[in-house]
Design goal:
By secondary structure, the protein is mainly beta. It is built from 1 helix and 11 strands; from the N terminus they run βββαββββββββ. Strands 2, 4, 5, 6, 9, 10 and 11 form a 7-stranded mixed β-sheet that branches.
């Protein structure tokens, strides 16, 4: 069973920063676009940021200029650096691996991010 292991969530005051990490098996990481999603209570899961195998990134409008996604193929890890956090960023954040071949996608267990006002 493929496991994506996330870490780095927590409680932070508005304006603060957090960095989320997600480690994936090498054979999955090398084939995958890597994404971070989030889901707030009562809301649908939404794409926050993604980075493809070539390092090209994309962001939700709500986080542009505040969040940065990056990946390291030597460490098989993707990070989400979050700055200028707002209470509306509070959610469970999920790492996602979307391989460019096959139909399977893989999810981490989720990590809670809580931003207090």
């Amino acid at each position: 069973q493929v496991q994506l292991v996330e870490s780095g969530g927590g409680l932070v005051q508005a304006g603060g920063s957090l960095r989320l990490s997600c480690a994936a098996p090498g054979f999955i990481f090398s084939l995958s676009d890597m994404n971070w999603y989030r889901q707030a209570p009562g809301k649908q899961r939404e794409l926050v940021a993604g980075v493809d195998r070539g390092g090209r990134s994309k962001y939700a409008d709500s986080v542009k200029g505040r969040f940065t996604i990056s990946r390291d193929s030597m460490k098989n890890t993707v990070w989400l650096q979050m700055t200028s956090l707002k209470p509306e960023d509070t959610a469970v954040y999920y790492c996602n691996a979307d391989p460019v071949v096959g139909e399977s996608v893989y999810w981490g267990q989720g990590t809670q991010v809580t931003v207090s006002s």
